[in-house]
Amino acid sequence: MTLDEPVLELKHLRKTFGSFTAVDDVSLTVPRGSVYGFLGPNGAGKTTTLRMALSIYSPTSGSVRILGRPSALHVRHRIGFLPEERGLYKKMRAREIIAYFASLKGMSLAAARKRADDLLEQYGLGEFARTRCEALSKGMSQKVQVLATIAHRPEFVIFDEPFSGLDPVNQQVLEQLIDDLRIAGTTIIFSTHIMEHAERLCDRLVLIARGRALFDGTLAEAKRLIPRQILLRTTSTPDGLQRVPGVVGIERLTNDQYALTLTEDGEPDAVLAACFHHGLPLLAFDRSEPTLRDVFLRLVGPSDAAEVLA
Amino acid sequence: MRNALLVARREFTENVQTKGFWLGVITTPLLLLLAVNAQRWLDASTPTRAFVVVDPAGLYIDAIDAAVDRLHQQEVLKAFGTYLARHALRKEPPTAADLESTPAVDVDSLLKRYSDANPAAVDMFVSQGGVAMALGLVRSQLKPDAPPFEEPRRPYVRVKLPAEVDPHDSAEVVAEALRPWLRGERQVADDERNVDLFAAVVVPPAVIDHVIRPGSLPTQPTPEASVQFWAANLADTDLAAVIEQAINDHQRREEFRARDVDATTVRAVQSTSVPLVKLNPTKASGREQVSMADQIRQWAPTGFVYLLWISIFAIASMLLNNTIEEKSNRLVEVLFSSITPWELMTGKLTGIAAAGLSMVGSWLVALVAVLWWQAGPQAEFAQSLLEVVVGSGLLPAFLGYFLLGYLLYGGLFLALGSVCNTLKEAQNMMQPVMLVMIVPLLTMVFIPKDPNGTLARVMSWIPIYTPFVMMNRAAASPPAIDLYGTTLLLLASVVFTLWLAGRIFAVGILRTGQPPRLVELLRWISRVDATGG
Q1: DSSP helix/strand/coil, B349
Q2: Does A57 lie at the interface with B, CB-CB under 8 angstroms?
Q3: Under an 8 A CB cutoff, do A88 and B14 touch?
């Protein structure tokens, strides 16, 4: 494959279980080197889509192209996968289990063991290398699982809900690890329902709900999907701002709080200038970007969003 | 292939690292050693037991003394035989031909006949000078480094009645007086040592008037009219048996005398016997005599069936357990991003078969080693068993049926494990399976009696029973059609089962929630796209 060919390309992917449609016409493209977020509520079809991408399930219809091949079976060794529900062999030692999974990906056992030791050392688990997994704490087990996923130096890593169940400290470690991978040029997909993680880490994302992909694009593109707003507090009435170019609406939120809706190319600076020009007494002027949460809420509707954003 | 081997390697390492594995490996030889030596060790650890006889009328005391001494002399004679066998110079070790010609009587019955019907031999041994005389006779035949002969301990010794007990009191009073000794509260003197009193025999003089004879009215024996055997230890019944035998023999001799019958003649008549040999028509002319090896060969397969059953199910259960482990903690998903379900399945089957074979192999090695170590001229049984185990085709048959049986049941258990989420669910589903599986255990004792009969033949053709039943029949030269036909059918069943298991495994192991209904299972199997869920 060439360097600019996408790492993963799904076209009109569909998966039904009996009469239930888990994934309905999902198409998406994951460019090389990107950190790609799969966002959506539980049961949206994220895991099923990922399983099809990995050829664990075969799609009912549609096509997969992964690392330039029609099936992940041909390129397993170049992929790392961390499923959402995960476990370890209780009786195996940390380094052995990492080495085992790496060896299944084609590394020699000796090299895999060495790599396991290095990784454990690097992520602060050096002293637990020879501990049986049943004796590891939950956080340590999860680290071991993540390390087992990347030990064979995959060029493409898929993390299904990697942050679920992690305490804040370990979430930090994982974010760091994802960042390390990105710097090393690894393409990463991770699914999550935590918008903040996606916002911090992703440069591209897909929004999935009820089996359908609602959006596939960059973070900036996603944010452009919803009108930009300015929040301001004033003791006066900001009706005069209505005439500023780019402002399409003013809504009074509370006693002294107003939300100004701007067109896509509306300039917050022009609004601020107009405020001074009209001598409007400003208590607050908030021109913050819309969050992914806002995008999500708008795209999936309140009922699905409630489950995720709760 | 590489992946399946990696999986196999992991399964093997994990299983041989469990405590259960090593317990299995270590306990079996220990149990075998124990079984072979239990009697000897038990004898060695049992102390000489003291008893008293209160027989104021002198009715049976001499008979009892003689019988207890004879019991000891028998042991001496036996020990002397073993001693000779071990330390006498022999020109050659016994050959297979010697074993084949050993008549099919087991050691126990031989000894019993010897002691019951012919106590005269022991008496003669004693009267001619016992061990001292015999040692003198064989000295020149002993190996130069032979240790001196050690006479075995007396099992029982009669001690003097404690001075506080008056033998001329009534039986009731004597028994009452003896209670503190019998309960272990007091000790009796035996050669300047104080020992516990094991038993007391009280013979009321009136017992002579209550001898039961044919034609006399059956009456409930009362303690006053019976010889009383007092002992707190109910488990050791040997002494009671010896005494009962002694007083009855004595009484019968008296009866003969009273009727003017010559007791010696009667005994001579009683010792008369007609020889009977067991012959097997399927053996070569001139060697038809049924040997001990023949009998063992007939029955040894039953032992192998049991071993086969235990090992197949122990090992297939390991497979079930760790399939459920992988499924319940969702390890399969990680695995399936690296290897195919088929690779996982073959890897597991191979790895666990290797672990299982190591364990079963260690049992077989232990069996042969223990027999080889214990075998010798003095342990004819072990020698013959060794001969059969090593010399006949039973071991290869065992290994073959083990592998095929394991693959058949392993495949079934894997499929079962893949559709269950918890061990509990699996156990529920196992119950009907267990019922079906128990059948060869129930039939394994009947089949050797009629190894080519209808039951055996019909069961041989049911693939799930083939390994066990054919193992059971292995020594009886089953017809070629049965031997090859059932093996082919079994092979085909193994292939079919593994194929079926592969399909169920691939779908089932990723599935969560309720175990599937039969209809669903059939759909999984029939579907071209097995991962279609």
Answers
A1: helix
A2: yes
A3: no
Task: Kindly state whether B338 is in contact with chain A, defined as any CB-CB distance less than 8 angstroms.
Answer: yes
CA atoms within 13 A on the CB side of A7: 21
CA distance A173 to chain B (A): 21
Spans in chain B with pLDDT lower than 70: 39-40, 85-86, 88-122, 124, 137-138, 140-141, 218-219, 282-292, 374-382, 512-514, 527-533
Q: Supply the DSSP symbol for B94.
A: P
Contact yes or no for A270/A244 (Cβ under 8 A): yes
Contacts of B529 in chain A (CB under 8 A): 58
User: Which one-letter amino acid corresponds to residue B233?
Assistant: N
Q: Which helix (H) or strand (E) holds B254?
A: helix B238-258
**C-beta atoms of A81 and B510 within 8 A:** no
Measured distance CA(B467)–CA(B471) in Å, rounded: 6
Does any CB of chain B come closer than 8 Å to the CB of residue A85? yes
- Contact (Cβ atoms closer than 8 angstroms) between residue B243 and residue B201: yes
pLDDT band at A30 (very low <50, low <70, confident <90, very high): very high
Residue A77 DSSP class: G
Distance CA A171, CA A192 (A): 13
Instruction: Supply the ipTM of this predicted assembly.
Output: 0.77
CA distance A294 to A218: 15
Q: Provide the mean pLDDT of chain A.
A: 85
d(CA B181, CA B198): 9
Six token digits for residue A296? 């999500």
Give me B322's structure tokens.
């760790």
Smallest CA–CA distance from A145 into chain B, residue: B334
Q: Which chain B residue lies closest to A154 (C-alpha atoms)? A: B338
Q: Please judge whether A86 and B328 are an interchain contact, meaning their C-beta atoms are less than 8 angstroms apart.
A: no
Domain boundaries, chain B: 48-270, 302-526
Residue A96, number of CB atoms within 10 A of its CB:
22
> What token pair was written down for B14?
């994990």
Q: Where are the alpha helices (DSSP H) in A136-167?
A: 138-150
Distance from CA of B461 to the nearest CA of A (A): 39
State which residue of chain B sits closest to A98, comparing Cα positions: B334
| Residues B110-142 pLDDT 10s | 334 434 435 666 676 777 777 777 777 667 667
Query: Does the CB of A64 have a partner CB in chain B at under 8 Å?
Result: no
The residue assigned the tokens 């034609």 is B215
Gap from B427 CA to chain A (nearest CA, Å): 21
Count how many pairs of residues, chain A against chain B, have C-beta atoms within 8 Å. Answer: 72
Region A64-88: what's the mean pLDDT? 87
Please state, in angstroms and rounded to a whole number, the distance separating the CA atoms of residues B520 and B533: 10
Torsion of CA A83, A89, A93, A96, to 10 degrees: -60
A58 lies within 8 A of chain B by CB: yes
Q: What is the DSSP letter of B24?
A: H
B527 interfaces chain A, CB cutoff of 8 Å: no
Confidence of residue A114 (pLDDT cuts 50, 70, 90): very high
- Flag whether pLDDT at A73 surpasses 90: no
d(CA A68, CA A34): 16
